[in-house]
């Protein structure tokens, strides 16, 4: 009889423990301090007080990736790459990885074209932003949302 009376209590306890372990898993998957504010601060550190306009930059990344350990991305910038009009730097930033800076590439007019391709790690589904600094001091950007089904970069 005592066993029958204890069953509802045990079931509630298991439910609470399951909910707590689920919350702990979510806390471990999302890196501490990751936020849109950190993303914006990283972009400000790159561009300073200059306005960052949308356009001239094309960020290509799959919208859905199965494994966050090797996400392909390509950034290209519309520029003639002449001594008077060229791309100086290209940077890629992320919203939720432990570090908001993904890559910064220095480019000059002798590069021929302003483009880079690489693979990156993503901790979870998030927004990526590519920003290019032009030789005239202007900054242009593009962004993309990526859904990651198997996370990477979970070491805080």
UniProtKB/TrEMBL annotation:
InterPro entries: SoxY, SoxY_para_1, SoxY_sf, Sulphur_oxidation_SoxY
Gene3D superfamilies from the UniProt entry: SoxY domain
Organism domain of life: Bacteria
Pfam families registered for this protein in UniProt: SoxY
Residues of the Ig-like SoxY domain: 45-153
Name of this chain's protein: Sulfur oxidation protein SoxY
